[in-house]
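Posting for a labmate who doesn't have an account.
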Amino acid sequence: MTSATLHLTAPTALERGLQHIADAISHYVARRIAARAERREITLDMLREQQTRRHDPQALDTALLALGSRPR
């Protein structure tokens, strides 16, 4: 009886295959989560940079003078 019990504890080929598929899906999902988090972080950094950028009120006048036009 002990040998029969030991034989049943080993996973079958089907179980090993299903385990392999589950591992592959888990790795795929983990990579997608990491990529999405990285894209989100980049987007937040870009947004923060846009919000903190200060606009020089005289920049337009300076650019117009550089082009040879009169300022506003």
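Reply:
Got it, the structure tokens are right above this. DSSP finds three helices and no strands in the chain.
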